[in-house]
């Protein structure tokens, strides 16, 4: 009840504020007209006298006659060099009155009284507020914004000026996350940082994201190190509302200081904090969203199914698939839905035969599903104390029809940052983060979502329109052994996952010694995850309405519990010394890092529940199954960094880290990873002075460094371990233990080593209006962990792992930003573009199998056959020998493959590089040329933000679910796209003739069915309005902004409309497009 009252009060305040604003606007429209750049009253102002029109040379500004109680203020706005600054916005704070400076920087404005405040703002300069007082003439100087000159960027164990960076580093602020209906930080970062590649495997509620920086670093996978306030955390558990900035360290020089875990790059997340001497500020954000899937698979109806299945059967068996009785009943119901949906067929009197025209998409899925996000924070500070505390809540429902199952995800986030200055040389800080989530989703069973228990598609391969939802007895229907998916969702049980994640961090900063700072922090994390699974018995019914058995996937019913208890702690102790001597600047940093982690887990299961819908192990009669485990690892390292610059022109940085990990044998446990980078600022050179008016920054960068990867398979890969378990059968009434002998292991496993070279340039032009950076890089990953040399078959064991593979990755990053204004309209535009490709340079594959890695292998490459087209006659089909691909009789309408090796037949050869038959590389699934474009516009209280994101090149192999599934067997759903099949009347069709089974040539990987996965997507469109302060303060609010946001609203792609181009394929749970309304309120 309390929450409802709070929400209603909030809504009432927003409505009241909007109403007051509307009334104010009505009054303004009737009372004012715009003349030049100045608002003038048409009811009070007298005609201008002679001489009151001032010629500025560039434009004419109408000078108002001062009103009673007002004073006219004139002045000039200058830049940092004292020159007049044209185009500066001069606004009377809290009102809509404003003007802009002329070509010489002059302005005039009618202020209200002595307490009025003028706000001066211009792109590339700091906004300044000046109280009028008794001034009638002002001379205002604006300072260059810290965008380039003084902006600090978070780097490893500290921060540096952006202009002095010599590594490849990109930063975004919380602005990219505002007003967006996102459940995790990864969704908000997609397309905002070049070569930060983000993948969301599905649109399932609560689904997280995965990252890579500049492509895959190793064939063993791996992800970047994510540090939140310097501490490793799961980025998917954070609330986007708590984020202040995100910095990505891309090259080895920037990441080397993190050593053992930085081989895949580093993402530094800084959360919000309070400010000293700042009054308490309360911020509330609320977003209500309606989601809908970005793609839907339209299945054919019953009439088309009759035509398709009969065509397929007639060509092979010489008769129709459906007999006359069934077709008559189907068409009767198709033409008149009041006719029976199921009949008793003479050939099967004990079962109902479906003759319906069911749209299973409407039955199984919600058309729209809601999501809501709410957050509240308070921040502030005194002379020596600052604080920030927030509480966030997300509630997200899923695509599953809520009448069948309530699929949902919710999460609470609590974060507190406290800092206290004990003395002028000692500062203490505490950070607390609590994340609690729960997800509920349908059961894991072969009849539902197949091998995708949580994130798989809700679409069913084994359901089609002729099957009704219920039979005439009101019971769930089935088609032979084909289950009713709605029944499984409704009665099949459920799965839940609960996560409780708590982080505690204490930090001390000591500045007792001049020019020196010492830091020490300790963090502790405990994370508990509990999963529960209940699979219930699901019966099927005969024509009499009696349960005649249970589906195999649900029998026996069962319940299982799995718990994961993770603990982690980290200690960082480091200090830095900074000294400036004339034009020389030196900074030394050194420190120590120790991390320990343990992962304990336990799983228990029991079958044969006594009561089907009461999932407790104590109420089950079957055998108990239990297992558990414990893994641990530790990292210890020492690190150092040297920064030197001369006159801010010549820049040098050295990083080094000596790391040790418990994952390797003692003799190879420690390694040293150095890096070096240099920079040259040409804009600081004397010979460059003539260009300084246009060029604010021109810097060249170069770096080279080495990183280590200790994220190898398992926690003890160098130890031969035994595997013990109970056997699955009884001996003398008991299940004895069995022990499996270990395979071969390599005692010399050690680090994968990643070296990276980077060249870059940074440019800023026109008073920092245009900023750009460009980087090219090459990364070599050596000693990747993989199988060792092929062993003789007589040993009958698998090759042990060893450091036996190398890979090269190369690519580029491009970032361009433009900021400007047109009159009173301010706008920004950002373009990012990046690319990468990777190639294997060393790998043991003596046979040259194309199914394995080999030297020269490009990651993502797709091998397959080349399709020439469709046979138009039976004679053509028989003439070409394709029996090696498919042994069935070939006919007109079948695919014909190109004989690449010219031997007169189509084969796959030995599937080796030396003998690939007619196979070749026909595509590559690596996303190439990823890009993003964002622009935002602000005019008075109105703001517009538009964001596009896409991939320019990618091949997708969709020879799987719903694309070609109609060629696998007769008990599957068929999409409408499949109706473009070959027939004598449709010789130019895309799909071959209908084939019910045995179509290995169709489902083989081939050029005809490789899809162009390139796309351009309108990722976000947001329109907001900020109510003037003079209005919002009347209802007790400092700032009120209301907004509308649309996400994934439009997509341009050539890909077939059965899968989202962002997803791995149509078997994935679809992504969603959304429409949102929200408000940001500050008190």
UniProtKB/TrEMBL annotation:
Q: Name the keywords, alphabetized.
A: Cell outer membrane, Membrane, TonB box, Transmembrane, Transmembrane beta strand, Transport
Q: Which InterPro entries match?
A: Beta-barrel_TonB, Beta-barrel_TonB_sf, CarboxyPept-like_regulatory, Plug_dom, Plug_dom_sf, TonB-dep_OMP_SusC/RagA, TonB-dep_OMP_SusC/RagA_CS, TonB-dep_rcpt-like
Transport: present as a keyword of the record? yes
Main localisation: membrane
Domain (TonB-dependent receptor plug): give its ranges.
162-266
- Compartmental location: Cell outer membrane
Question: GO CC terms on record?
Answer: cell outer membrane
* Topology in membrane: Multi-pass membrane protein
* Ranges of residues in domain TonB-dependent receptor-like beta-barrel: 452-1049
Instruction: Kindly give the NCBIfam families that the UniProt entry links to this protein.
Output: OMP_RagA_SusC, SusC_RagA_signa
Q: Which family does it belong to?
A: Belongs to the TonB-dependent receptor family.
Annotated protein name in UniProt: TonB-linked SusC/RagA family outer membrane protein
Species of the source: Larkinella arboricola
């Amino acid at each position: 009840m309390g929450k409802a009252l709070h929400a209603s009060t909030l809504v009432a305040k927003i409505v009241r504020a909007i109403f007051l604003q509307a009334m104010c606007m009505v009054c303004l429209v009737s009372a004012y007209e715009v003349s030049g750049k100045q608002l003038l009253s048409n009811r009070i102002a007298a005609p201008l006298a002679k001489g009151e029109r001032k010629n500025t040379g560039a434009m004419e500004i109408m000078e108002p006659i001062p009103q009673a109680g007002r004073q006219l203020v004139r002045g000039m706005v200058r830049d940092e060099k004292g020159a007049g600054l044209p185009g500066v916005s001069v606004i009377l704070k809290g009102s809509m009155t404003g003007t802009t400076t002329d070509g010489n920087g002059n302005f005039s404005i009618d202020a209200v009284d002595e307490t009025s405040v003028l706000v001066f703002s211009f792109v590339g300069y700091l906004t300044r507020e000046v109280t009028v007082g008794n001034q009638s003439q002002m001379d205002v100087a604006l300072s260059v914004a810290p965008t380039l000159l003084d902006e600090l960027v978070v780097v490893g164990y500290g921060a540096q000026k952006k202009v002095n960076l010599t590594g490849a580093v990109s930063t975004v602020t919380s602005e990219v996350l505002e007003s967006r209906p996102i459940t995790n930080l990864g969704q908000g970062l997609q397309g905002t940082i070049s070569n930060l590649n983000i993948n969301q495997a599905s649109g399932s509620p609560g689904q997280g994201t995965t990252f890579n920086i500049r492509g895959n670093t190793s064939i063993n996978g791996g992800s970047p190190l994510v540090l939140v306030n310097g501490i490793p955390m799961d980025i998917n558990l954070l609330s986007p509302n708590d984020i202040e900035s995100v910095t990505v360290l891309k090259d080895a020089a920037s990441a080397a200081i993190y050593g053992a875990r930085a081989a895949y790059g580093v993402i530094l997340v800084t959360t919000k904090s309070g400010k000293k001497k700042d009054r308490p500020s309360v911020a509330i954000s609320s977003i209500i969203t309606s989601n809908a899937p970005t793609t839907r698979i339209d299945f054919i109806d019953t009439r088309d199914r009759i035509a398709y299945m009969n065509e397929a059967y007639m060509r092979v068996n010489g008769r129709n698939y459906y007999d006359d009785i069934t077709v008559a009943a189907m068409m009767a119901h198709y033409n008149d839905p009041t006719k029976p949906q199921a009949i008793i067929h003479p050939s099967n009197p004990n079962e109902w035969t479906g003759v319906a025209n069911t749209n299973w998409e409407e039955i199984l899925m919600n058309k729209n599903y809601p999501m809501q996000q709410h957050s509240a924070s308070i921040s502030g500070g005194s002379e020596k104390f600052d604080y920030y505390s927030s509480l966030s809540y997300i509630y997200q429902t899923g695509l599953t029809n809520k009448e069948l199952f309530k699929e949902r995800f919710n999460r609470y986030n609590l974060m507190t940052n406290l800092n206290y200055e004990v003395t002028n040389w000692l500062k203490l800080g505490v950070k607390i983060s609590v994340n609690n989530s729960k997800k509920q989703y349908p059961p894991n069973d072969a009849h539902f979502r197949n091998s995708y228990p949580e994130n798989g598609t809700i679409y069913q391969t084994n359901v089609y329109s002729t099957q009704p939802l219920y039979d005439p007895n009101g019971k769930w229907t089935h088609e032979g052994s084909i289950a009713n998916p709605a029944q499984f969702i409704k009665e099949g049980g459920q799965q839940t996952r609960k996560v409780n994640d708590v982080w505690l961090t204490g930090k001390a900063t000591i500045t007792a010694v001049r020019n020196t700072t010492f830091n020490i922090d300790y963090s502790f994390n405990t994370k508990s995850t509990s999963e529960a699974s209940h699979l219930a018995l699901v019966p099927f019914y005969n024509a009499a309405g009696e349960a005649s058995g249970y589906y195999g996937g649900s029998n026996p019913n069962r319940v299982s519990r799995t718990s994961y208890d993770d603990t982690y702690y980290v200690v960082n102790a480091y200090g830095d010394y900074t000294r400036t001597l004339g034009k020389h600047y030196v900074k030394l940093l050194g420190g120590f890092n120790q991390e320990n982690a343990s992962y304990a887990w336990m799983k228990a299961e029991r079958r044969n529940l006594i009561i089907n819908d009461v999932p407790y192990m104590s109420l089950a009669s079957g055998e108990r199954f239990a297992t558990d485990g414990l893994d641990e690892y530790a990292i210890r390292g020492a690190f150092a960094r040297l920064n030197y610059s001369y006159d801010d022109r010549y820049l040098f940085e050295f990083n080094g880290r000596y790391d040790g990990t418990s994952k390797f044998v003692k003799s190879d446990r420690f390694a040293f990873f150095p890096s070096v980078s240099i920079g040259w600022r040409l804009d600081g050179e004397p010979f460059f002075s003539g260009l300084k008016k246009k060029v604010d920054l021109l810097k060249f960068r170069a770096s080279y460094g080495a990183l280590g990867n200790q994220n190898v398979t398992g926690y003890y890969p160098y130890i031969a371990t035994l595997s013990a378990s109970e056997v699955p059968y009884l001996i003398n009434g008991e299940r004895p233990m069995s022990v499996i002998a270990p395979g071969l292991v390599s005692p010399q496993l050690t680090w994968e080593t990643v070296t990276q070279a980077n060249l870059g340039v940074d440019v800023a032009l026109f008073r920092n209006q245009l900023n750009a950076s460009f980087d090219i890089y090459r990364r070599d990953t050596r000693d990747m962990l993989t199988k060792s040399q092929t062993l003789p078959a007589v040993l009958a064991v698998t090759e042990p792992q060893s450091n036996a593979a190398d890979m090269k990755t190369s690519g580029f990053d491009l970032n361009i930003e433009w900021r400007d204004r047109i009159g009173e309209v301010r706008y920004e535009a950002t373009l990012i573009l990046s690319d990468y490709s990777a190639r294997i340079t060393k790998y043991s594959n003596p046979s040259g199998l194309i199914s394995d890695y080999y030297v020269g292998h490009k990651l993502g490459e797709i091998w397959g056959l080349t399709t020439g087209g469709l046979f138009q006659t039976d004679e053509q089909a028989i003439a070409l020998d394709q029996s090696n691909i498919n042994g069935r009789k070939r006919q007109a309408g079948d695919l014909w493959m190109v004989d690449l090796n010219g031997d007169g037949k189509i084969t796959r050869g030995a599937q080796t590089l030396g003998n690939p038959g007619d196979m070749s590389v026909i595509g590559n699934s690596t996303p190439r040329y990823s890009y993003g474009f964002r622009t935002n516009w602000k005019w008075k209280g109105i703001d517009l933000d538009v964001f596009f994101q896409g991939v320019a090149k990618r091949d997708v192999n969709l020879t799987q679910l719903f694309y070609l599934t109609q060629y696998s067997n007769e008990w599957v759903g068929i999409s409408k796209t499949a109706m473009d099949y070959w027939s004598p009347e449709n010789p130019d069709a895309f799909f071959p003739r209908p084939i019910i089974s045995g179509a290995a040539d169709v489902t083989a990987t081939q050029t005809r069915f490789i899809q162009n996965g390139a796309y351009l997507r309108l990722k976000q469109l947001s329109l907001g309005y900020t109510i003037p302060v003079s209005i919002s303060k009347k209802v007790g609010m400092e700032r009120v902004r209301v907004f509308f946001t649309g996400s994934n609203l439009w997509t341009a792609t050539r890909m077939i409309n059965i899968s989202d181009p962002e997803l791995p394929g149509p078997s994935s749970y679809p992504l969603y497009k959304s429409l949102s309304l929200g408000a940001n309120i500050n008190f």
